[in-house]
């Protein structure tokens, strides 16, 4: 009897075989549907079982001579002496994971023993009857032909896959293109990871990041495969990126033929090359980015724009007005911020031992500052200036940076310049000077209040009188007293500036 489960497995004739889901390795169903040998499936629960080779044996225990995946040909099974011995024989074959047992009938045995058929059914082992007119040599030759066809098909598959992977590596985004193409080839989810995060993966990937990262940690720094009935998970070292070891992870919901594993190895080598090239390009871009900023600061915006276009060829031109952002922090924090800015913005940057300077369009400032606030740094935004005046924006950023504190890590020139010349003086120095200047008034706070009102009213006695509820003559008398104590003349604009500065410093 021929079971429906043994329907033929179609072969794909398209050269792009890896895109065809009907492609399969040489398997039991291929033999069952060869009319020249007329095999009869007696029990065939797994017709898609692949065949590695043919083994002809009459041993009662042939397992020492088997490796797994063989089609076992026999005429006696070693002549088991009891029904229980037939079950033991089948169990031994199943333990070796053979593809099928083919029993030859003839004058020596007119039909397959019932005990053998029962044992095969119990163990879910493929059992085939070989008719008397079919000799084992013909079966062996046919299997050899099928295996040769399979090997040639795999060579074609691998060659085409390698060509496509190399083509992907030549694209403008080689890492993502290689992963996408590899996923198409092996019909699996692919990702490039470090031990801590996913670096890149195709947009169609549906894996759980935690599962992939856990697999990477289990493998250490060597290649590994985890194969279960439900999935195949392969981890392959793939070089390094930004001083971190990287790994190619492939997760498939099916077994992977040998040629696909070679394609995965090819992808791993191409990813190593792509990452090395990317690091060299990144180093070149950083050098060009730094040079562009330095030329802007030197007052040469024309050359600076040319260098910027080389560093960021796919970005739009810089705005006519630009702002310098100055960042202060530890070297480690500055390097992390630098890397994040480079990955997120097409902005000229310069990293020194204790500073990171970023040149950016004012419209992009909110997004940049939102990226920077996650780091343990202090940030100051300079005033927007024309491209030829970028050095002035840097100067204002550095002045504003002096006002940044742990409680107020982000400041801008616009905020601090509201204090005018106060922004130019160190806060501690200003407070010290103001306390010394106003010390003669320490025991007479009313005089300090009247001075403050006088400066705020721009010297208008009537307005001071109204604000303090004192008679005008009293106000004049108090102001004369304050002038004597401070040794100043309030008719002198410089003296008024001194009073204003000291009062603002102590606010």
Automatic annotation (TrEMBL):
InterPro entries: CdaR-like_regulators (IPR051448), PucR_C-HTH_dom (IPR025736), PucR_C-HTH_sf (IPR042070), PucR_dom (IPR012914). Residues 50-146 form the Purine catabolism PurC-like domain. Pfam families: HTH_30, PucR. This is PucR family transcriptional regulator. Residues 447-505 form the PucR C-terminal helix-turn-helix domain. It comes from Winkia neuii.
